[in-house]
Amino acid sequence: MWLNRDIVSIGDFTKEEVMQVIEKANEMLPYASSGHPEKPLSGKVVSTLFYEPSTRTRLSFESAVFRMGGNVLGFGSLEATSVVKGETLSDTIRIVNSYSDAIILRHPSEGAARLASEFADVPVINAGDGAGQHPTQTLLDIFTIWKELGSVDGKKIGFVGDLKYGRTVHSLSKALSMFDVSLYFISPEELKIPKHIKREIDKKVPVREAKNIEEIIEELDVLYVTRIQKERFPDINEYKKVAGTYVIRPSLLTRGKRNLIIMHPLPRVNEIPPEVDSSPHARYFKQASYGVPLRMALLDLIFRGD
Amino acid sequence: MWLNRDIVSIGDFTKEEVMQVIEKANEMLPYASSGHPEKPLSGKVVSTLFYEPSTRTRLSFESAVFRMGGNVLGFGSLEATSVVKGETLSDTIRIVNSYSDAIILRHPSEGAARLASEFADVPVINAGDGAGQHPTQTLLDIFTIWKELGSVDGKKIGFVGDLKYGRTVHSLSKALSMFDVSLYFISPEELKIPKHIKREIDKKVPVREAKNIEEIIEELDVLYVTRIQKERFPDINEYKKVAGTYVIRPSLLTRGKRNLIIMHPLPRVNEIPPEVDSSPHARYFKQASYGVPLRMALLDLIFRGD
Amino acid sequence: MWLNRDIVSIGDFTKEEVMQVIEKANEMLPYASSGHPEKPLSGKVVSTLFYEPSTRTRLSFESAVFRMGGNVLGFGSLEATSVVKGETLSDTIRIVNSYSDAIILRHPSEGAARLASEFADVPVINAGDGAGQHPTQTLLDIFTIWKELGSVDGKKIGFVGDLKYGRTVHSLSKALSMFDVSLYFISPEELKIPKHIKREIDKKVPVREAKNIEEIIEELDVLYVTRIQKERFPDINEYKKVAGTYVIRPSLLTRGKRNLIIMHPLPRVNEIPPEVDSSPHARYFKQASYGVPLRMALLDLIFRGD
Q1: Contact criterion met (CB < 8 Å) for A289 and C44
Q2: Torsion angle (degrees, nearest 10) of CA A98, A99, A103, A106
Q3: B135-288: which CATH topology?
């Protein structure tokens, strides 16, 4: 039942549905650079309402819409703050609802996409709502693992960095726990994965926590790196100590499996130095590139059904 | 004579021309959600130069252009201030004139659209020029009355709120005075309709002023509500007293005609509480949705003639 | 060898290549207002990454892409500063590289376009990089001379205004020195053409410097005017004296050749008064309009080869 479906939370997806999206994205892959030959969105208008900036997500959605033959209207954030200020989100949604065939929403408040989906007749796609969800990022991360390693089942996947605040890690680890995987959480004490998330995942798949990447690098098929933000630390020296520990140095990678892949939701700061870019393990730019076929897949499913 | 016509002021329209736009908008209505089958703007480029922010007007114009098969370039305001700063409007217009087939202009200064139309060879559509004109809003308001009530002639239309400063009310009431209507102006003493406007309208149609909606709610076919802005009042208490008086409560509506419709140019703040949204009288979101077919109608007339 | 070529610096072009662009732009001229009948960019996506504002360049590129049947994504500056902040240019380029078929880049840092071209697989077009290059402006300037005067060879071209800091003048004068032209540099002492540029040009074509336009106005076929910026002068009175001297008054033009053309990269401030706009010598708005066919020509060469 994909036709006109809202994409609000990865929690709304079954494993079968995730796999349907993955397979559709694989089908879209050649069209992501040349354009879909059937132009399934011809004559369609998609709104991108970005109340917060996001180059990557917004531009890859726009590219996906264009590659499918559609058009895009909307705003990209700075404008939004002044323009829609004073109007409730539900009012804005009800209006834009009549200007377009789907709404892609990024909003600073958790729950914004769910609210929007209740006021819109057209499908709403959540492009990130604060500390909440960012389901298309999670889907493109799973697609990357599937595509680069041939399957998700059977893989050992380690998350490193800020596991406390990063919504990317929370969503992705929950979604992966629907698969037959082992998950590893590597972080400083201050940024450990929240207990309620660990508990939920623990019921379904093997989970292990570690303080150092070195302890477990040899076991991993995927090392998913995230940024550690200075702002999380009251003491800058504490930050510096910690940040240095979680940098992915080329020397570390020599100890990994031959097929180990390094992923990162980007933007990165210092946690992956540029020397790693040319490593055969590096997949973070490839991962970003999958944003287009993955989003084309969702648009195809929503606009044409399965 | 619609081909390449500038749309600067509603005062330039005869009643016959208004009706031509209304009928064309009605024709466009099914295409406003599915796209015009003939793509009359295929290969065309329309500029949206918004020196002031305006989600509703800009997005509905862009949707209209896309539904007609055209493309849009331009800027959406914050940018504008820094970019075009220091260049005269006439210079900017002469340049953009050569980049596009029509110019849609919003500008903070009254008269800007008229000036632009003198420097552009391509048609200029006024999307609001300060305290001046916003003719496409007026046309969509008239279309809403016509569509929702079956006709404009014979209707009793009340305006409530800030009738002193609101250009929406000034333009619409003047345009409606070309029809066989009765007009009611309901406002606090401080925000009464300006005398010169009332005098002009008075010559053509019956006009009545009132201080309370209750006095006349039973007579009305249309209640057109506008926002009362805090900034208009030197004393905040005075504002609060007044604002509360002009809130459209559900209890008030029970006293209205069965077919009474409530309109509002949006955004609203507190003057229409959310409880009214589900009332059969509420038409303000429908009104906003008519922005697309109405603007498609104008584009069709300007690009293809009648 | 035009297919997929980066357009970084006018210094990368031979005279033959400049002429190829000029002739292609001439071919595109009728399509610049009606759209290219073959839609050579159908299904293609072009990124416009503007880290600095630029109405003229951005809008004319977007118009060119639309006239060729393509789509545009990107950002227009204010947004950019907040969005892509903290990410290296090379990372942003590698990502956007996978979202689009070509990248048009404006950036405040000299060398940014060259760097970008090294990280992108898709062609990069430099739309201005700080004090560096702006090759499409130079090409459209040459096209203007060629189109308005019938040829470039044999012409006497004078530059007036800020010849010290203006990258437009530096690039154009270097490019013109590949042709059989005479060049004249007219500026206040403080804003003379840099010695290393003059020396380079001097080897190839006759060069003359002057302090007053009056001295040489009678000889010129082209008077290329640029803005003198207040900020260049420590003393405002010095600025005022100088600025007044280099204003192109109608009386001055009466002494010029019958076919003299006045060009300006725009925006202008006071250096060309509005009275000159209606003069048969004025070509600066025509020059701006050539931005679209010129950029269409480059897109055609890059996407389809020669």
Answers
A1: no
A2: -110
A3: Rossmann fold (3.40.50)
